[in-house]
Amino acid sequence: MEAKAVAKYVRMSSSKLKPVADLVRGKDLNEALTILKFTPGKGSELIEKVVKSAAANAENNHDMNPDELYVAEINANQGPTMKRWRPGAQGRAGMILKRTSNIYVTLKEKEAPVKAVKEAEKEEVR
């Protein structure tokens, strides 16, 4: 089972968000939230918000145990760019690009080790 959360049109460039996303990919939920809490910058706050939303979705919508969740997938992709103009010298105009991002987070439950599952099945048969 997996739980997802998405934040679209976040007003920050994806190039600033991707290094923060790389820090928590594959980590346990509690460890990921701790890393994001102590990472400086606005990007960590935005990603932390989406990870918390995915955790809430897992707990409330899918009845998953929050202690067994980990960050399976996390992406910060480029969203639409707003184009603005700034007047320049001698009647020219310079373009300003206001970039946005889309953040996708997927949390999954850790699977029980295969050995423990096989032992549990043997006990049920007896």
Descriptive report:
The protein has 126 residues and is of the alpha+beta class. The chain has one domain: Ribosomal protein L22/L17 (Ribosomal Protein L22, Chain A), CATH 3.90.470.10. It has helices at residues 14-24, 29-38, 42-61, 114-125, and strands at 2-10, 69-78, 82-87, 93-98, 101-109. A three-stranded antiparallel sheet has the order 1-5-2. Strands 3-4 form a two-stranded antiparallel sheet. Helix 2 (29-38) packs antiparallel against helix 3.
Total count of strands = 5
Summed up, the helix count is 4
Let me know the average pLDDT.
92
Q: Report the top-level CATH class.
A: Alpha Beta
What composes the largest sheet? 3 strands, antiparallel
| Order of H and E elements | EHHHEEEEH
Biggest sheet, spatial arrangement of strands: 1-5-2
> In the CATH scheme, what's the topology name?
Ribosomal Protein L22, Chain A
**Helix and strand composition category:** alpha+beta
Domain count? 1
Q: Helical amount among residues, as a percent range?
A: 40-55%
How much of the sequence lies in strands comes to 25-35%
Shape: elongated
Rg over CA atoms: 20 Å
Which runs of at least 5 residues are low in confidence (pLDDT < 50)?
none
CATH H level: which superfamily? Ribosomal protein L22/L17
